[in-house]
Amino acid sequence: QLQFVASGGGTVQPGGSLRLSCTASGFTLENFEVGWFRQAPGKDFEGVSVEHPEGWIYYVEAGKGRWTSTRDNAKNTVYLQMTALNPEEPAVYYCSPATAEGGRIMPKWKSWGQGTQVTVSS
């Protein structure tokens, strides 16, 4: 089964940092635009970043200056380094093929792989 798998979530205090990892099951990420999304309880999915294989990266306004997306093709992994996490950001985070359209980050697949829980709590 082809899917993207997110990992690395956990519980941090406000202002803390986490590094999420996205790997692929059954294929390589090298040629994919990889996006990060999150879903808070009772809310819709929200795209937070997308990284193109050629290196350009788009972040939504909330993540600019705080988050960094990087790619390691040798490890078949895309990372999202998140800093300065705030109490409004707890959610399940997912990665998926994605694109940026009209200022929004949109998933290209209709289904989601394994997500990872991020909790921000003092």
Description:
The mean pLDDT is 92. This protein is 0% helix and 52% strand. The chain starts with a strand and ends with a strand. By secondary structure, it is mainly β. Strands 2, 4, 5, 6, 9, 10 and 11 form a seven-stranded mixed sheet that branches. The protein has a four-stranded antiparallel sheet with strand order 1-3-8-7, with no helix packed on it.
Poorly predicted sequence stretches spanning 5 or more consecutive residues: none
What's the gyration radius in Å? Answer: 13 Å
Give the number of DSSP strands: 11
The dominant shape is globular
**Mean pLDDT rating:** 92
Question: Would you list the SSEs in sequence order as H and E?
Answer: EEEEEEEEEEE
Structural class computed from helices and strand pairing:
mainly beta
Describe what is shown at a glance.
The chain has no helices and 11 strands.
Question: Main attributes?
Answer:
seven-stranded mixed β-sheet; mainly beta
Question: What's the arrangement of secondary structure elements?
Answer:
Elements: E1 3-7, E2 10-12, E3 18-25, E4 34-39, E5 46-51, E6 57-59, E7 67-72, E8 77-82, E9 91-101, E10 104-107, E11 116-120
Parallel strand pairs: 2-11
Antiparallel strand pairs: 1-3, 3-8, 4-5, 4-9, 5-6, 7-8, 9-10, 9-11
